[in-house]
Amino acid sequence: MIGLPRRCGRHRDGQPYTPVYRRVWDGPARAEAERLDQTWANWTVLYSLGRRSFYAVAAWDGPRPVMVEDATADGLEQRMHEAETTRMIRIRTEAESLATNRRGGSHSQVSAAAPSYSPHRPGRRRRAA
User: Fold this and answer.
1) Tens digit of pLDDT per residue, the chain (129 long)?
2) Is residue 61 part of a domain?
3) How far apart are CA 126 and CA 120, in angstroms?
């Protein structure tokens, strides 16, 4: 009927007021994502309702952001562990190559080919004022 005030909720003529309850979608999966987020300190863990998938974004510094995805929480944990292992191997390899270069190992050819500019020419003295 037009013009009659209505209450919030489901409306049926002649029926009592029935409230509409909030529905929590994928509650167990969201709870699992929250648990993973608290367990893994260097990661931010999310659950996508639209894709029904878990995501984790690494919180460490790097040249590019690291993000992993999996359909299950256990699979996501495995991918996070693999990403951390890969990062540690890369850091160790870079540190070893820097140490080798400092000890007189193989050097880059770029520094040998690039001219070095000096403000003072060797063998010349400044004039006294």
Assistant:
1) 566 665 555 556 677 767 777 788 899 999 999 999 999 999 999 999 999 999 999 998 888 899 999 999 999 999 999 999 999 998 899 888 888 877 665 555 555 555 555 555 555 555 555
2) yes
3) 9
